[in-house]
Design brief:
about 290 residues, mainly alpha
Length: about 290
């Protein structure tokens, strides 16, 4: 897991938090109404407590997602590029989701069934006048069906370890906190700025580009390196041929001089032999 991935999760939570406000606005209002008779200082402490519970649930879900990734997917991804490609595709998918298409709405509707099963337990935490109740409410809140959360969980699946998955989901949850704890005036300001500058769409586009880079850049680098290696091989072969030719050129005069030297030696020996024949004494018979 890299710092860039943690930053992506944080920005995903922050710029996607208007969606969270739409999903959880009623729940936040109910929490606030249940604490209307509590002092401001204790109310702030209770708000912090139930957000800690919510982030704990996110971290737990990230732990499970990371565990699934390492036990189910990792044996299929050892010794190949599948983890990197899968991470890039997940980033692209989540980025496209933040751009607008509601791919995860069906999963939200499916998750609502599980949320309905928790209804009796949810009723028992009201009013949120104690810290155990606030913590329990936050823990339950973390399981509220949310397409944005599901997208973050997909990233946690390819985070390479359960701890990394938990950390990613915790950081994602931190990104959603400012919008959910802001006052009514501040919420309106944040939503206006995020909508006016299309910051959610911008973050989605950045995630799409990041995912494409994760997938394509190593492939391009590998292709370039392979081409360079082939070019270097031809250059090496040409250099080898040149060296061999130079070696032959250097050796040829030496061989010719050796042949000339041997020929001259043989001619001198032959001449000396003739001279010895001419000077030898002649015996005449009487």
């Amino acid at each position: 897991m890299t710092t860039a991935l943690l930053v992506a999760a944080l920005l995903m939570g922050f710029f996607g938090s208007p969606h969270c406000l739409g999903m959880c606005g009623g729940l936040v209002t109910a929490f606030g109404l249940s604490m209307k008779d509590i002092s401001p200082a204790k109310r702030r402490a209770l708000v912090v407590t139930y957000h800690i519970g919510r982030l704990t649930s996110y971290a737990f879900l990230g732990l499970i997602a990371g565990l699934i990734g390492t036990t189910v997917l990792e044996p299929l991804m050892t010794g190949n590029n599948i983890p990197r490609i899968l991470l890039g595709l997940v980033l692209v998918f989540v980025g496209v989701t933040m751009l607008g298409p509601p791919f995860l709405n069906k999963l939200e509707r499916f998750g609502m069934r599980f949320w309905q099963y928790l209804s009796p337990l949810r009723q028992k935490v009201f009013p949120l006048n104690t810290f155990p109740r606030a913590l329990t409410a936050g823990l339950l809140w973390g399981f509220l069906p949310c397409g944005l959360v599901y997208g973050a969980l997909l990233i946690a699946v390819v985070a390479h370890s359960p701890i990394s998955g938990a950390a990613l989901m915790f950081v994602f949850g931190l990104g959603t906190v400012p919008m959910l704890v802001a006052t009514h005036e501040t919420v309106g300001w944040l939503r206006d700025k995020i909508g006016r500058f299309r910051l959610r769409q911008l973050n989605g586009a950045v995630m799409v580009l990041s995912g494409l880079a994760v997938v394509l850049v190593p492939i391009m680098m590998s292709s370039m390196h392979s081409g360079h290696s082939h070019g270097g091989g031809h250059e090496h072969m040409d250099h080898g041929r040149h060296s061999a030719m130079m070696s032959d050129a250097d050796t040829a005069p030496h061989d010719m001089s050796q042949m000339d030297h041997d020929g001259m030696k043989q001619e001198m020996d032959h001449s000396m032999h003739n001279m010895s024949d001419d000077t030898a004494p002649t015996h005449h018979s009487h």
